[in-house]
Design goal:
The structure holds two protein chains of two kinds. In chain A, 43% of the residues lie in helices and 16% in strands. Chain A has a five-stranded mixed sheet. Chain A has a five-stranded mixed sheet with strand order 4-10-9-6-7. Chain A is elongated, with a radius of gyration of 28 Å. Chain A folds into three domains: 105 residues, Orthogonal Bundle (Helix Hairpins); 145 residues, Cupredoxins -  blue copper proteins (Immunoglobulin-like, Sandwich), CATH 2.60.40.420; 105 residues, Cytochrome Bc1 Complex, Chain D, domain 2 (Orthogonal Bundle). The longest helix of chain A has 34 residues. In chain A, a hairpin with a 4-residue loop joins strand 2 and strand 3. Chain A has ten helices and ten strands. By secondary structure, chain B is mainly α. Chain B contains 17 helices and two strands. In chain B, helix 7 packs antiparallel against helix 8, helix 7 packs antiparallel against helix 9 and helix 13 packs antiparallel against helix 15. The longest helix of chain B has 36 residues. Classes of the chains: A alpha+beta, B mainly alpha. At the A-B interface, helix 2, helix 3, strand 7 and strand 9 of A face helix 4, helix 10, helix 11, helix 12 and helix 13 of B.
Chain lengths: 376, 527
């Protein structure tokens, strides 16, 4: 009982300390904003204190011995070298301590793994190097990638001070938006390699595995912005794959849903109309910057031996059908993905037109969204 | 005539063949091969260390200053491969080669020609592995864990990586067979299993772990090779395979592997502490049983590396309980070391300082290990710097400190020269201070949510990264002192006595310092 009270006081003290030291010198785990993350935090603190206390006892005995049982103090060595009684004690006591940790951990785990009775489902698909969020019941689907400011400042020797960029490397162009106070079920998969979606404040981390769908859930108590990033090495831009989750109250979430639907309908129109070459090149340069430049580089020069150059490449200056084919279907066993299921007809038409008439290429031909649609 | 012949014979017996290049290439002598392993390992320790310094230099402050993300990933991958397979493992095999025969009273290893081969594969494997840095597309960048599908995106270096891993595996397996054959067949009369020195015991068990798991790794990487070049889909869901299966197979190798890197260290520390406490090891038999239990448990905990892949909750519970159980035998070991020191008559020469440093800092790594074992909390820690801090605590002030302790302990025996103990103690203290500046802040970074293997980070992680990098440079450069001490002691130094340390016990101390080229040609009898 005394122990429990001590633990509680200690936890509280640490909490206060953590809150005070939050900004740059965060030393401890965040308690987070979900019941699960709070459970985790509680177990973490319990385990931490158990370790600290055992450490004090064991190291205390050791340093006492180091200070007193030394030759230069004239201490004579004893000759004992075993004691069945002591050995049984220090085998049994750790077992009991471990059990007292394992029981609450098992209880928390069973609760965490129960994703039933959710109120909203979000599907997350990971790509090298961005996330796609899909709301199957609402018909909303969009990509979420690193924001442009971070991307610019993050280039080697960019000359931009990372401290001047708000949420450097942790800010996305379009965040995952969810209602607060609702149980959200998350389905996670990947389109290419293994990624992992983790947001510490939600107490969630789950791998995105190509060909398999994992599930997890969270229920955010308070509206706000919560950040994380990809936590499983997924190639060159693993460090540039942030996650932002925005939790809104119910009414604001509904407004957001309506807005998204309108925007998607507008995008649909793009793919039906006829474009001029200039319009395509302008749109294409934006698509290139968010989708292609991570590998093929901003100027189209690629990275020798790793990612092919776009400038003067056989594909970007050769037959336009072959060019469209590789963009639509990708290339097996490389980082070149099948963009057919990521980009709209208009996006693909635009980016191909841009690649053939920009980045130092001047083939002169162009594609219309209708051509892309026909080739799918 | 006769007397002269005897003299020549005797000379050979003592000093071995002249010091030519061919001597080292063709040698089948366990001491020569042990020396080769240890020097090779020392060199690779600096190669891997240089890679670590490139990593820490880039992470010194936010923003990319020195390397591109792709090269950064090559460095994290190669640093791990070099340190594990080319530095720490060869160092332990080198110690085994030098010490096991003279600790059990055997004239040499049981299979001397194979011994030569198992060493000489290493330089070739390392050249293949390190030369990947210079091929088109650079070195492997998918992490030492080689998870598909990412690793299948590797360019020209991919088959070189697989071939190097195969060669390293062959070398380790041959080394282990040799160690097992030596221990089982060549112990001096009266040296029963339960009288073997702890270092011999821990290596005996380690060798079994190696034989059991290295072929598993070889199988896994071969499947990667056929997936990439021969159209199989072991690890591709699109072809009916499963990328997570690779992780199961890899960690079935990988978890025993981490004990391969630590069990011989337990043995070393169990030799050193009794010597400088001038008191027999406390709980010898429980030490043996604890080592065996840890080895057994290492085979049934592999999925704790994969708690976030989406295992069934029952599986997560099993692997959590099994993993936590490892704390029990490990705890027994730590308690036994403390009990050995208790009421001893201790002195604190360099080997003892490193051994005590090992006990303290390995235990810190053990604590974070218990925390990581608990599945719900692991979801927060997984793949963050908390994990990086954890395994570096058990591998650097753990395994590496134990290797250094062993070198300081046995170097006078090997060379016949006593090193400057004061310099050794200085080396210990600066290493111990900097290693903590290097790795302790990484716990905080991990708890704050910084993922591992990223070349650049959010500004909120800046302060502790800078501290960690300062520690890294301090630790890295202070190892030059280690190299200086070792090399200068090989060349010259005060003649060491046979027993070297006042409290030393065991057959190796009955030999001269340095021991004759061929020792224990007549087996000693243990009473």
């Amino acid at each position: 009982m005394v122990m429990v009270r001590f633990l509680r006081t200690a936890t509280l003290a640490t909490l206060l300390l953590a809150a005070k030291a939050q900004a740059d010198w965060q030393m401890n785990l965040t308690p987070g904003v979900t019941e699960v993350s709070e459970d985790i935090y509680g177990i973490h603190m319990m385990a931490l204190w158990v370790c600290i206390i055992i450490g004090i006892v064991v190291f205390g005995a050791m340093f006492y011995s180091i200070l007193h049982h030394r030759k230069d103090k004239g201490h004579q060595a004893a000759t004992f070298h075993e004691s069945t009684k002591v050995e049984i004690i220090w085998t049994a006591v750790p077992v009991i301590i471990l059990l007292s940790l394992a029981v609450p951990a098992a209880q928390a785990l069973i609760k965490m793994e129960d994703s039933s009775n959710s109120e909203l489902t979000v599907k997350i698909t990971a790509y090298q190097w961005k996330w796609q969020y899909e709301y199957p019941n609402e018909g909303i689907k969009f990509f979420s990638s690193l924001d442009t400011k971070s991307r610019k400042a993050g280039v080697k020797n960019s000359g931009i001070d990372p401290a001047s960029v708000e949420h450097y490397l942790r800010q996305v162009d379009s965040p995952l938006v969810v209602p607060a106070g609702k149980k959200i079920r998350v389905l996670i998969t990947s389109n290419d390699v293994i990624h992992s979606w983790g947001v510490p404040a939600l107490g969630v981390k789950k791998d995105a595995i190509p060909g398999f769908v994992n599930d997890t859930w969270f229920n955010i108590k308070t509206p706000g912005e919560y950040r994380g990033q990809c936590v499983e090495l997924c190639g060159k831009d693993h460090g540039y794959m942030p996650i932002t989750v925005v939790a809104l109250d119910d009414a604001a979430f509904q407004t957001w849903v309506t807005e998204q639907k309108t925007a998607m309908a507008a995008a649909q129109n793009d793919s039906n109309k006829e474009w001029t070459k200039e319009e395509l090149i302008e749109k294409g340069s934006k698509v290139y910057a968010t989708t292609c430049s991570a590998c093929h580089q901003a100027g189209g020069q690629g990275i020798p031996g790793v990612f092919p150059a776009m400038t003067g490449s056989k594909i970007a200056t050769g037959d336009i059908k072959a060019h469209l084919d590789i963009v639509l279907h990708g290339k097996a066993n490389t980082a070149m993905q099948a963009f057919g299921n990521q980009l709209s007809d208009a996006d693909i038409a635009a980016v191909i037109t841009f690649e053939r008439n920009g980045l130092g290429n001047s083939v002169g031909d162009m594609l219309q969204p209708a051509d892309v649609k026909a080739a799918r | 005539m006769n007397a002269q012949a005897v003299h020549v014979d005797h000379d050979d017996h003592d000093h071995g063949p002249p010091n030519s290049g061919m001597r080292w290439i063709t040698t089948t002598n366990h001491k020569d091969i042990g020396t080769l392993y240890l020097l090779f390992s020392l060199l690779m320790f600096f190669v891997g260390g240089l890679m670590a310094l490139i990593i820490r230099a880039e992470l010194f402050k936010p923003g990319l200053q020195l390397v591109n993300p792709d090269f950064f990933n090559q460095m994290t991958t190669m640093h791990a491969l070099v340190m594990i397979f080319l530095a720490v493992m060869p160092a332990f095999v080198g110690l085994a080669n030098w010490m096991i025969p003279i600790m059990i009273g055997a004239p040499d290893m049981a299979l001397p020609r194979m011994n030569n081969w198992s060493f000489w594969i290493l330089p070739f494997a390392s050249v293949i592995l390190i030369s990947t840095l210079f091929v088109n597309g650079g070195a492997p960048a998918g992490g030492w864990t080689m998870y598909p599908p990412l690793v299948l995106q590797t360019g020209a270096s991919f088959p070189m990586l697989i071939f190097a891993v195969h060669l390293l595996g062959i070398s380790s397996i041959m080394g282990s067979i040799n160690i097992i054959a030596t221990i089982m067949n060549m112990r001096a009369p009266g040296m029963t299993y339960m009288k073997m020195p702890l270092f011999v015991w821990t290596w005996f068990i380690t060798a079994y772990l190696l034989i059991a798991t290295m072929p598993v790794l070889a199988g896994a990487v071969t499947m990667l090779l056929t997936d990439k070049y021969f159209g199989t889909s072991f690890f591709s869901a699109a072809g009916g395979g499963d990328p997570v299966m690779f992780q199961h197979i890899f960690w079935f190798f990988g978890h025993p592997e981490v004990y391969i890197l630590i069990l011989p260290a337990f043995g070393i520390v169990s030799q050193i502490i009794p010597t400088f406490a001038r008191k027999p090891l406390f709980g010898y038999s429980s030490m043996v049983y604890a080592t065996a239990s840890i080895a057994f448990l290492s085979f049934i905990v592999w999925a704790h590396h994969m708690f976030t892949v989406g295992l069934a909750v029952e599986a997560e519970l099993f692997f959590m309980f099994a993993t936590m159980l490892i704390a029990v035998p490990t705890g027994v070991k730590v308690f036994n070391w403390v009990a050995t020191m208790w009421k001893g008559s201790m002195t604190f020469e360099t080997p003892m300082l490193f051994a005590i440093g090992f006990v303290v800092m390995f235990t810190i790594g053990g604590f974070s290990g218990v925390m990581l074992a608990m599945t719900p909390v692991d979801f927060q820690y997984h793949d963050t710097y908390f994990v990086v801090a954890h395994f570096h605590y058990v591998l650097v002030p753990g395994a590496v400190f134990a290797i250094m302790a062993a070198v300081y302990y046995w170097l006078p025996k090997w060379t016949g020269h006593m090193y400057n103990d004061k310099l050794g103690r200085i080396h210990f203290w600066i290493s111990a201070v900097f290693v903590n500046i290097l790795f302790f802040p990484q716990h905080f970074l991990g708890l704050a949510g910084m993922p591992r293997r990223i070349p650049d980070y959010s500004v909120q992680f800046a302060d502790f990264n800078m501290i960690s990098s300062i520690g890294a440079f301090g630790f890295g450069f202070s190892q030059l002192l280690f190299a200086y001490i070792v090399i200068s002691t090989i060349r010259k130094g005060k003649q060491a006595t046979d027993i070297v340390w006042e409290g030393a016990k065991g057959l190796e101390w009955t030999l001269s310092s340095p021991p004759p080229y061929h020792s224990f040609s007549v087996q000693p009898v243990i009473k």
